[in-house]
Amino acid sequence: MTDQSTQPRPTLEAVAARAGVSRATVSRVVNGGEGVREPLVERVRRAVDELGYVPNQAARSLVTRRHDAVAVVIAEPETRVFADPFFALQLRGISKELTAHDSQLVLLLTEGRDDHARVARYLAGGHVDGALVFSLHLDDPLPSLIHGVPTVYGGRPGWSDGSHGVVYVDCDNRGGAREAVRHLVGLGRTRVAHITGALDQTSAVDRLDGFRDVMVDADPRLIVESDFTPGGGERAMRELLDRRPDVDAVFAANDLMAVGAMRALRERGRRVPEDVAVIGFDDMLPFTEQADPPLTTVRQDIEEMGRLMARLLLRGLDRSGSAVADVPSSVVLPTTLVRRVSA
Amino acid sequence: MTDQSTQPRPTLEAVAARAGVSRATVSRVVNGGEGVREPLVERVRRAVDELGYVPNQAARSLVTRRHDAVAVVIAEPETRVFADPFFALQLRGISKELTAHDSQLVLLLTEGRDDHARVARYLAGGHVDGALVFSLHLDDPLPSLIHGVPTVYGGRPGWSDGSHGVVYVDCDNRGGAREAVRHLVGLGRTRVAHITGALDQTSAVDRLDGFRDVMVDADPRLIVESDFTPGGGERAMRELLDRRPDVDAVFAANDLMAVGAMRALRERGRRVPEDVAVIGFDDMLPFTEQADPPLTTVRQDIEEMGRLMARLLLRGLDRSGSAVADVPSSVVLPTTLVRRVSA
DNA sequence: CGGCCAAAAGGGAGCGCTCTCAGCAATGAA
DNA sequence: TTCATTGCTGAGAGCGCTCCCTTTTGGCCG
Q1: CA triplet A38, A42, A43: central angle to 5 degrees?
Q2: Whole-angstrom distance between the N-terminal and C-terminal Cα of chain A?
Q3: What average pLDDT does the segment A57-62 reach?
Q4: Residue B289 vs residue B220, higher pLDDT
Q5: pLDDT number for residue A77
Q6: pLDDT at residue A6 is higher than 60
Q7: Greater pLDDT, B75 or A330
Q8: Could you tell me the distance in Å between the CA of residue B70 and the C1' of nucleotide D18?
Q9: Distance CA B337, CA B280 (A)
């Protein structure tokens, strides 16, 4: 275990002694140096460097009641998180933003229901300044367990009835879906199908709604419920081909399913996009670009969503801001259609 | 921002008052209840529940100098982390193990060199009990910056000269590679090529060594250096086909490259496995299973590696254990060949 | 050159907890 | 009955820091 050496780390006191000033002055310098005269600032800085002083966060938190830490809760039953770079990208955005604000990222992964209580207890314990919560399913009990902690959700929670003080960041799932389907229609396709995501998530529901907005009286057989996985997309496509062999376009609720659908199409001897146009959602690079054929899809800026979530949370946390300005509200990011080969 | 309500949380003091005992007794009960008589334990427990008491971790850390938190450092230049479920799986294993030990996971993602100093400072700051560090490249400056924090590395660090007190968890890259290549040879293939990973990582070097162990005097043109990405694998395969059109088998240093290679092969009209057998490494589900054709590969249990890293670190941290037994040492996990269709 | 005032520096309390040690009751031995 | 012993429980001292409040300093005006 590389290095256990624990020579006692220097305290504020030690720095103060070395610089020949009081603890309070060192504290002021360490926290920005406001209202301390230049020569002293200089002396203190030198002492800090020489001693390699690093503030003890525990002691600081004890009195300030801030932690400079934010919890990221990923409540996802099993697999998806790991087949899907989605969260990794969000994490990256979050991490960048938190780093810029000197906050730490405490990652809470849950496995099954029991874990929810654990997470709730942790959040309630006031160990973090706020929470970013992901991937709630409609019936997820977690939100009701979260109290007393400022929270921003990733994706519109199912129970968010309009506003009600819930803050979330989402992309324009419905609008993006509409654009995708309109694109297919614009291509001259008339038998446009939809492979839905798991309908216990609002993103899947919203994308389905977007599909219906355009295909107002679509044959119900052209809509197949699936689950956001490649395998699910493949199965759904087969079923679609059985139900309506004349299908000439498919909008899949995410890229993974679109890729699965293309596999099923190839298997059945249909060409993409000549026989059946396929369009996905997310623009999950590099999979979309390297799919065969490269996938036309609806892009959402996932990393930006993560960054925004963190920014919103931190803004809400920032007590110094003017009272009115810093009540954050939800944000819905735009999507863009990325045309490649598949549609 | 869902819920800002901050009624002051109850302290030990409050619980003590309610239970009619001293602070010390409550503390004892909260920390396991050793040496406290049953009726008192009961009374304290009730008071804790009634008040919804949760210990203040900051106050506790201040005196115990433990944090019940471990940093996970992922130092990866840009893309790979996000195209590759590798880290997600490791994180999951780590998370499980830490949760079981009531430790928190503080995630530190670095972006470029400047970040290293930040991470080093954070670790040196003694905010966590230990660190799990990933994905070091041979020339990575991070290890030299880490001092005073027990650390376990994910994957053998390049500079770990035998032992030297460095603890890491890795899989048997060399042995796995040997097995893969032997399998190809056993299939009767004689022009076996290798697409390497990024050779600034020990995993890539070890896999190359394993290849050479078996193909002792391979034509150097049958070895192409690449970078672990699908695009890299594709380019490498094309080059291989140009250099040695008679190549009849390829061992790619990971699955992503194997998939890229298969794409290049298809593009050039070679059938897999009939004309060219392909084998990967990692067994990155579901990509390997759903590749076309399903990919034969060398499996390593990534989640288990994560779990093991955490376990090793925690064991080293555990002061209560007997002095001798708990000096952890590195672990190399076995790999297994998974036969599917591509070889 | 003294006095006044604002700004800068210091003193000290206390955040909530753990842990050592003292106190004290109950028990058994002398 | 008395005294040592054991085993709980309580009192109190800090852990390292921030922040309020007091004291000191230094600039400037009269």
Answers
A1: 120
A2: 54
A3: 94
A4: B220
A5: 58
A6: no
A7: A330
A8: 26
A9: 10
B81 pLDDT more than 80:
no
Q: Count Cβ neighbours within 10 Å for each residue of A272-284 and write b for 16 or more, e otherwise.
A: bbeebbbbbbbbb
Question: Which structure tokens are listed for A59?
Answer: 């002691």
Number of residue pairs across A and B with CB atoms under 8 Å? 174
The answer to whether some atom of strand C lies closer than 7 Å to the beta carbon of A117 is: no
Q: Which domains does chain A have, with CATH numbers?
A: 12-55 (1.10.260.40), 69-172+303-334 (3.40.50.2300), 173-300 (3.40.50.2300)
What average pLDDT does the segment A13-29 reach?
93
HEC profile of chain A: CCCCCCCCCCCHHHHHHHHCCCHHHHHHHHCCCCCCCHHHHHHHHHHHHHHCCCCCHHHHHHHHCCCCEEEEEEECCCCHHHHCCHHHHHHHHHHHHHHHCCCEEEEEEECCCHHHHHHHHHHHCCCCCEEEEECCCCCCCHHHHCCCCCEEEECCCCCCCCCCCCEEEEECHHHHHHHHHHHHHHCCCCCEEEECCCCCCHHHHHHHHHHHHHCCCCCHHHEECCCCCHHHHHHHHHHHHHHCCCCCEEEECCHHHHHHHHHHHHHCCCCCCCCCEEEEEECCCCHHHHCCCCCEEEECCHHHHHHHHHHHHHHHHCCCCCCCCCCCCCEEECCEEECCCCC
State the average pLDDT over residues B135-143: 78
Q: Strand C closer than 7 Å to the CB of B323?
A: no
Residues of chain A with Cβ-Cβ distance to B58 below 8 Å are 57-59, 61-62, 67
What are A280-323's pLDDT values in tens digits? 999 987 778 878 899 999 999 999 999 999 999 998 886 543 33
Chain B residue with Cα closest to A129:
B4
H-helix or E-strand spanning residue B110: strand B104-110
pLDDT band at B34 (very low <50, low <70, confident <90, very high): confident
* β-sheet with B336-338: strand ranges across: B223-224, B192-195, B249-252, B277-282, B296-299, B336-338
Q: What residues does A132 pair with on adjacent strands?
A: A72, A152
pLDDT (average), residues A210-229: 95
State phi, psi for B131 to the nearest 5 degrees: -140, 145
Instruction: Decide the pairing of beta strands A167-171 and A104-110.
Output: unpaired
